[in-house]
Amino acid sequence: MRQSSASVVLGLAWFAVQVAAAGTPVLVPRASTTITPITVTGNAFYQGSERFYIRGVDYQPGGGTGVESDPIANASSCERDIPYFTKLGINTIRVYAVDNSVNHDTCMNALAAAGIYLILDTDTSKYSLNRNDPAQSYNSVYLQSVFATIDEFANYPNTLAFLSGNEVINNASNTNCAPYVKAVTRDMKQYIGSRGYRSIPVGYSAADVAQNQQLMAEYMNCGTNDQRSDFYAINDYSWCDPSSFTTSGWDTLVQNYTGYGIPLFMSEYGCITNTRTFQEVSALYNTEMTGVFSGGLVYEYSQEGNGYGLVTISGDTVTPNSDFTYLQSAYAAQANPTGNGGASSTSAASTCPTQSSEWDVANDDLPAIPAAAEKYMTTGAGTGPGLNGPGSQEAGNAETESTGTASAGSGTVTETATSSSKKSDGVRIPAFDFQAFSVVVAVLFSMAGGMALL
Known about the structure:
Blueprint: H1 5-21, E1 38-41, E2 44-47, E3 50-52, E4 54-58, H2 75-88, E5 92-95, H3 105-113, E6 117-121, H4 134-137, H5 140-153, E7 159-166, H6 178-194, E8 202-206, H7 213-220, E9 231-235, H8 250-257, E10 264-269, H9 280-284, H10 287-290, E11 293-298, E12 311-314, E13 317-320, H11 322-333, E14 366-367, H12 371-374, H13 376-379, E15 404-406, E16 413-415, H14 434-452
Parallel strand pairs: 4-5, 4-11, 5-6, 6-7, 7-8, 8-9, 9-10, 10-11
Antiparallel strand pairs: 1-2, 2-3, 12-13, 14-15, 15-16
Helix pairs in contact: 1-14, 2-3, 5-6
Subcellular location: Cell membrane
Keywords: Glycoprotein, GPI-anchor, Hydrolase, Lipoprotein, Membrane, Signal, Transferase
Organism: Hyaloscypha hepaticicola
């Protein structure tokens, strides 16, 4: 039965009061809703009911200049490059750094219209964990920037996933960083849930380090669901054409990760030791791998002085290189498997690795979220610092750093001698969000005139 416009508006306004009082943001899609958000079931990604395989490239034009820039804030360059994404036949790009203080609607809408998703690193060079001092760099200033990036991109339906870090552990001697990477992953998942966003997968991109890549995979998937990663990604350059599934060692990769309980994909691949013809594409999207891997991202779209570029960019001109043509042909020649490709529907946790000469983590406890950052769970992060902010790596102090450890899944904190606060593990009663409420009421009452005509 159709209600009067006044009763509808008043009813919705009452609902808005409850939403604002609960500290939940008003969620309005920021990009085209014709693209289906990607979800996780078991060890695979899904687009609706269909298995989704990442076919993509890493995208950071200008990344070789030494000056960090945001490629998806630049609408003209984004729209310049999308036709080449379409020619390649990709469905995903990975971007390593963005300016979280500016709007990205134009590019994200254009990507969505082309059927292209975004995997986004939430760190920048200034706002990231410092592997040489992870305790100091895990602070509320850093997390505010991470959360602000989530705020900027969470309501785009083509935001596929967030990366909580990239190659933080980059050799055999700095696995002591692992608890901080996992803590950031936990905090991002909690922030997404606390702010009422859809469930956007959060995971980590690991370096190609034989001593600890798989140990890190086990660590990121062990424990309780609140601290387990939603997926794991690896950077791998072991397939160098001409090669094969066995010669490259990818058969061993599949064997090592068989039974892994969350989605796994290659966040970087594409060895340049020899001419790249991308023979590995035929293996990556074949059932010999799809029961374990969900595709991957080729490094990288543009030539940045390191030899990996698929195209050369000069001003507004894009010139495809031979690698571009080889990859285009490889993607076109290898269809995805039918059905679920051998995916598992269950998501089993791994066993946490024990401390050893190759794994410098004593137990399963994580740093507690800094008290100064916990407030963002209810108030929101506010405006991000962008790419030119003062940075966070040296911003740690008694007020901004973590002051205790959080046991896996418990939500409780073991305080240190300097701790002056304890993480709440009870019901939180947030402040009323008058700003969100006023926005909703204004929108609802602007609708009333239209409703009166019905």
